[in-house]
Amino acid sequence: MSANDRSNRLEWTDLDQRAVDTVRVLAMDAVETPAMGHPGTAMSLAPAAYLLYQRLLRYDPADPDWMGRDRFVLSCGHSSLTLYVQLFFAGLLDLDDLKHLRQWGSRTPGHPEHGHTAGVETTTGPLGQGLANAVGMAMAARRERGLLDPDAAPGTSPFDHRIFVFASDGDIEEGITHEASAIAGHQKLGNLIALYDANQISIEDDTDIALSEDVAKRYEAYGWHVQTVEWRRADGYVEDVQALWDAYQEAIAETARPSLIIVKTIIAWPAPNAQNTGKAHGSALGPTEVAATKRVLGFDPDRSFQVDEEVLAHVRQLRERGAKVHEEWQETFQAWRDDHPDQALLLDRMRSRRLPEGWTDRIPSFEPGKDVATRKASGEVLTALAPVLPELWGGSADLAGSNNTTPAGEPSFIPPEYSTKEFTGDWYGRVLHFGVREHAMGAVLNGIALHGGTRPYGGTFLVFSDYMRPAVRLAALMKLPVIYVWTHDSIGLGEDGPTHQPVEHLAALRGIPGLEVIRPADGNETAAAWQHVMAHSDAPKALALTRQNVPTFDRSGGTGFAPASEVARGGYVLVDAPGNQVADVVLIATGSEVQLAVAAREQLEAEGVAARVVSMPCVEWFDAQDQAYRDTVIPPGVKARVCVEAGIAQPWYRFAGDSGRIVSLEHFGASADYKTLFTEFGLTGETVAQAARESIAAARG
Questions:
Q1: With contact defined as beta carbons under 8 Å apart, do 257 and 188 qualify?
Q2: Residue 184 is inside which H or E element, if any?
Q3: Which residue, among 667, 666, 487, 671, has the nearest Cα to 591 in the 3D structure?
Q4: Which helix (H) or strand (E) covers residue 25, if one does?
Q5: Backbone phi, then psi, for 189, in 5-degree steps?
Q6: Between vectors from CA 178 to CA 175 and to CA 181, what angle results, nearest 5°?
Q7: 126: number of Cβ within 10 Å
Q8: Rounded CA gap, 405 and 227, in Å?
Q9: Catalytic: 438?
């Protein structure tokens, strides 16, 4: 369904209108069952959703993951029925699914969940995340076209498609969409079309209480193409679907800018008493209002979930149209495969998330005796992998030089006219520049990962992961292969002081189910961590890296230090007690504090105390090992233990046990060089050794 296939005049029949009204009836009935929900927005968005799925979206319900499809993101996820009813019309959901909205085990949870319901492109609910995801999808579409078919004329490539979004007043208010929309405008994402349902009602009723800016002018300032469709008119409310159609045609024709269509609607139209009320936004309308609305629409007030057979037959024609469009696309796609065998191999590898043969040969190693910051080691890994892993791309929230997220010699992903002295690039470049926009960066990364086979990463300081947390949580919920490069991981960043020094962040991030937090001890652990991260695409991964240099351990034969490949186990015996004797105490440490445990081991050895050092770069990976392995690393019979991390102790009590001690930081940092801070706050080898003595004494009773 290319733009050339669409006439300027919309054919809108009585059956189309009846189908739109059926959407409203189903939305009202569905939320009555749990006596909760958001029927009003689904009612006001009914014409737009129907128009999109039945006339505009390139979509095949028989293959909801078809690579060539347009994407639709329902950013206002509270209005889940806006999507669910269209999926019912498409045959992907049954009427019983609508009847079981929000119920245990249903395919229609309260907010759409990616991976749970076929046809749901992303998990939405937290407002603003969906629109920001869509920006990432639009960026990914451009990057993938650049990798696979860069020379095709606009609109002729099988990789040309659009990202459609529905957003609400709440989405527009959330700060994340300010950031993401600015990125979209700057990137000139002409494949992104957003519809803003400006019904001016939220849970607290009239949005005049909190929203007064001119949204159209704001988006024009971002560089968007903006149109307004006014259904609220002086002579009454008119759902002018032709006007909306015309606006979509203009948006589709505008390929140099993202498009925003503002539709001035009335929430819960045409409910006699609930329309234009805050109650309609967040609550079921109640049986009396539902019956009254059904009468207005010409439906039987005594019937629930009424879908006329002729309406269902009419909307299910979408399946035939979708199959035809898919078949036409497949011909274009096959011609591309025949003409581009190398790119076809890359595509197949990306879609299956397979890595090329020999890719690990590129991973660098770091010489013992030479101190190197793990952030620097990470940057060298990225530079080394760039030539063999074109699917790996990313950047930083204006901290590239600090995060070391720019592979050497790689172009930026940017409209060419925005190249600078420091960064030159083109439409299909590799290095992302998010600006100081951590909120949006997190959600954009999710959108990139959701779109296809590329592997995105994004960097900032660990302390600013707080700004990203909602998107990080959603990445974990959706099991997305997003990579976070969070540097300056402790008070070791030094002089910037407590505002920039993370203390509680590692513990808080480990509290997100499904997020894998990796804090490597040296350059070789960092390289091994990257290898494991790239080899596994089943969850988001976070690298917490040092600003300061740390020792590179000598792991050559005879030193007693284990190879860095053991990082993949999450926790391992870095160096055992002298002579491999039974340990008196186990010292468990992460990141830059592993060197403190090694220093303490040497002190204790001089006193005749046998200490084992365990490097624990990733608690989540360690927990995934079987119990037998975990017991070989931290023997249950050794009750004397010390855990060491320059952050709060909360995650470590379960490893320390009743007799253990934890060397941690239970307060904010200070502004000084990192060596002074570690000394003043008791993060030293001597402190660890003393904690070991105390733990041994406690274990002996």
A1: yes
A2: helix 175-187
A3: 487
A4: helix 14-32
A5: -80, 85
A6: 145
A7: 20
A8: 38
A9: yes
Backbone phi and psi for residue 543, each to the nearest 5 degrees, phi listed first: -95, 120
Name the residue among 399, 341, 344 with its Cα closest to residue 375: 399
Q: Alpha-carbon distance 108 to 82, whole Å?
A: 12
Q: Is 10 exposed, middle or buried (0-12, 13-18, 19+ CB in 10 A)?
A: middle
Single-letter code of the amino acid located at 265: T
Residue carrying the six token digits 């993101």: 73
3-state class (DSSP) for residue 372: strand
Residue 262 vs residues 230, 253, 509, 668, 680: alpha-carbon distances, Å: 8, 17, 38, 46, 57
Q: Residue 457 forms beta bridges with which residues?
A: 394, 483
Which residue type sits at 358?
G
Q: Which residue type does 341 have?
A: P
Give CA–CA dist 400/395, Å, rounded.
Answer: 7
- Please say whether the beta carbons of 149 and 159 come within 8 A: yes
Paired tokens of 511: 């509290």
pLDDT at 3: 38
Q: How far is CA 116 from CA 72, 111, 261, 476, in A?
A: 16, 11, 30, 14
| Locus of tokens 């090992």 | 625
Q: Minimal CA–CA distance to 191: which of 259, 261, 145? A: 259
Task: Output the pLDDT for position 1.
Answer: 39
Q: Which two tokens stand for residue 473?
A: 């949580």
**SS3 of 594, please?**
helix
451: burial class by Cβ within 10 Å (0-12, 13-18, 19+)? Answer: buried
The Cα–Cα gap between 124 and 326 comes to 27
Question: For residues 62 and 615, what is the distance between their CA atoms, to the nearest angstrom?
Answer: 49
Ranges in the chain, pLDDT < 70: 1-7
Residue 105 φ/ψ region, left for φ over 0, alpha for ψ in the -120 to 50 degree band, beta for the rest: left
Are β-strands 163-168 and 585-589 bridged in parallel, bridged antiparallel, or unpaired?
A: unpaired
Bridge partners of 228, per DSSP, are 262
**Confidence at residue 2, expressed as pLDDT on a 0 to 100 scale:** 39
Residue type, 319: R
Please tell me whether residue 87 adopts helix, strand or coil conformation: helix
Kindly give the interhelix angle for 438-451 and 129-148, rounded to the nearest 10 degrees.
50
Residue of 438, 516, 566, 593 marked catalytic: 438
Residues 6 or more apart whose CB falls under 8 angstroms from that of 619 comprise 510, 517, 570, 571, 651
What is the β-pairing status of strands 259-264 and 192-197? parallel
What is d(CA 29, CA 89) in angstroms, rounded to the nearest whole number? 16
Peptide bond into 112 cis (omega under 30): no
What DSSP string describes 444-468?
HHHHHHHHSS-EEEEEEEGGGHHHH
Nearest in space to 102 (alpha carbons), one of 47, 35, 155: 35
Residues found in the chain: 701
Q: Identify the bridge partners of residue 227 per DSSP, sorted by sequence position.
A: 261
Rounded to 5 degrees, what are φ and ψ at 665?
A: -135, 110
The model's pTM: 0.97
CB count in 10 Å sphere of residue 2: 12
